[in-house]
Amino acid sequence: MSFSRKVKEEIGERFGVGRHCEIAEFTAIFNLCGKIKKDRIGKNFLFIHTENLTVAQKSDILLKKVFQIQAEIVVSNHNIRSGGYSYLLYIRKETEVFLILKAMKVVDDQGDLWGDSLRVHQRLVQNTCCKRAFLRGSFLVAGSITNPEKAYHVEIPVLAEDYAKDLQKLMASFGLEAKLVQRKKYHVLYMKEGAQIVDFLNVIEAHVALMELENIRILKEVRNSVNRQVNCETANIQKTVTAAAKQIEDIKFIECNMGFSQLADGLREIAELRLEYPDCSLQELGEMLSTPISKSGVNHRLRKISRIAEALREKRNAYF
Description:
By secondary structure, the protein is an alpha+beta fold. It has 2 domains: 3-205, Endonuclease I-creI (Roll); 227-319, no CATH class. Helix content is 57%, strand content 14%. The protein has 11 helices and 8 strands. The protein has a 4-stranded antiparallel sheet with strand order 1-2-4-3. Strands 5-6-8-7 form a 4-stranded antiparallel sheet. It is rod-shaped, with a radius of gyration of 36 Å. The chain starts with a helix and ends with a helix. The relative contact order is 0.09. The mean pLDDT is 88.
């Protein structure tokens, strides 16, 4: 099961604290997969069309719980090869249609048009709990979230730009910084930061998915930290090995072309130790000296040896 599906199944079982929250969530669902149509004799009827069983089930539950309405449900196999199904929920009774449209703030008490489904009606989302419910319903229908093992990405595509901007404002009220981009005919709200996605899951009350994502984030951060440390240590080892190889090369050049007898006692001793212990660190070499010195002191002596070797090479090249 995909992570996105896990989230949707979890929030499919979440309901608001009051009727107003449930109306907000139902409205979000209807706005994204519902339609208002007229029948042959000109009467309005409503239907919700979805290929997501969780959306269909929640819509049916909300209709019964909030409006005491039993929808006419039609299930059809829209893809024989994949076994995919389409779910249609019809509300045909005039009184029930009016009750729902009035609750969604589409019509007023007289049945005149009040708003439309291309905007988020602010009277539906005045309370924080209703904003949570509206975002939950929106994600349930249109949202998707990438498996956090691979990447952090959540998005909600909608057709109307104004509607997308209204959802963006709802998210902003919870401190969520969703970005908006147009992709073909859709206006897509998206977030790519792990912390923001965790906060979003908390807003829509997908707490189980939130904990799973947090665990994955922690493991990834630990893994990345270990990798950075290993890479750093590997780079340091490589640097040390390269430096030691150059030091040994310089010391051998001096030994062959000048001999150690002309070196000062301190330089001769460190040169002999470096040849004998090529894998030791500068600090370890410093501790082996007859008069121990610091790491920086060893480095200073080896630099002097390097300069002597370079001077010998230049002199030799000039001679030949």
